[in-house]
Amino acid sequence: MNLRGKIEIACQTDVGQMRDHNEDALSSDENVGLAVLADGMGGLNAGEVASAMSVQLLMGALRAYQTGNSVFEAELGATDELVQAAVKSAIEKANSSVFHVSQIQPKYKGMGTTVVVGLFRNNRLITGHIGDSRVYRFRADKLEQITKDHSFVQELIDQGIYTEDEARASKRKNIVTRALGVAPKVEVEVNEHQVNVGDIYLMCSDGLTDLVVDSNIESSLRELSSNLGAAAGHLVNLANASGGKDNISVVLCRVRQSFPDEDGRVSKVLS
After folding, report:
1. Which of 70, 86, 195, 234, by CA, is between 20 and 30 Å from 93?
2. How far is CA 74 from the centre of its chain?
3. Which CATH superfamily is domain 7-255 in?
4. Which residues have C-beta within 8 Å of that of residue 208, sequence separation ≥ 6?
5. pLDDT digits (tens, 9 = 90+) for 178-194
6. Are 5 and 258 in contact (CB under 8 A)?
């Protein structure tokens, strides 16, 4: 599926102010409407190995799927449900590969990563994620988080034990309850969202959201939405200005035109 000129993507990653290396990884391809972001964890350089490996594997598998050159396309086809299945399968395969490397190379034992995938197809965004890297939708000047963190504090919020503000202040806010590569199998959350022309989707690591509140992200996008590159850079700068305690990664995706599937199946997109 060729989405040239229909999806605009800008990416920015930064080591931050406190870390000596960047364990985040990201990649994107506007032509096939695909972006992947990962926030690695583990001793020494293991975190950046897990994140880089995951991004490379997922970009390869899902780029091939979008262009019709993969086993996913041959086996699963391209209905909306099967596109979700392809994203889920790709993440599960990446999990198996990262876990395998962690088992055969002692220096990488215990490595893992969050991951978030955004794949645009048939006027929809399919998201797949593990951990606390997020996706937001900016529509009609309003920002809305459309993924839910797989984290300890999110579970406390769901149980009514913590408020959002208490979770934000908690020393345990960075404990994730799911991660890619730490076990042979992992539960992947996949969701589908109808897109509108003009929507902007933000994918980010917690290096941004731990330090920049949603209202400031929203106002930044409102002011800088005409220039995605400038907006991405500004968000990274805001996190650094607030201490830059972690690596910071941002992907911004704008829907420029409708993109129904080429076989004639059309999902309505609003403009």
Report:
1. 195
2. 26
3. PPM-type phosphatase domain (3.60.40.10)
4. 217, 235, 236, 238, 239, 248, 249, 250
5. 999 999 999 999 999 99
6. no
CA pair distance 44, 23, nearest whole angstrom: 10
Sheet holding 142-145, edge to edge: 7-14, 248-255, 200-204, 134-139, 142-145
- Encode pLDDT of 35-62 as tens digits: 999 999 976 679 999 999 999 999 999 9
With a CB cutoff of 8 Å and minimum separation 6, the contacts of 159 are: none
The alpha carbon dihedral of 236, 242, 16, 154 has a sign of negative
225 phi, psi to nearest 5 deg: -65, -20
Tokens coding 128: 């797949």
Reduced to 3 states (helix: H, G, I; strand: E, B; else coil), residue 212 is: coil
> pLDDT of 212-233, one tens digit each?
999 999 999 999 999 999 999 9
Question: How far is the C-alpha of 53 from the C-alpha of 88, rounded, in Å?
Answer: 17
Q: What is the largest CA-CA distance in the chain?
A: 53
Using 50, 70 and 90 to split pLDDT, how confident is the model at 266? very low
Q: Report the distance separating Cα 88 and Cα 45, nearest Å.
A: 27
Q: Please report, as a single letter, which amino acid is at residue 193.
A: H
Reference 34, options 46, 26, 43, 42; nearest CA is 26
What lies within 8 Å, CB to CB, of 240 at 6+ separation is 14, 16, 17, 248
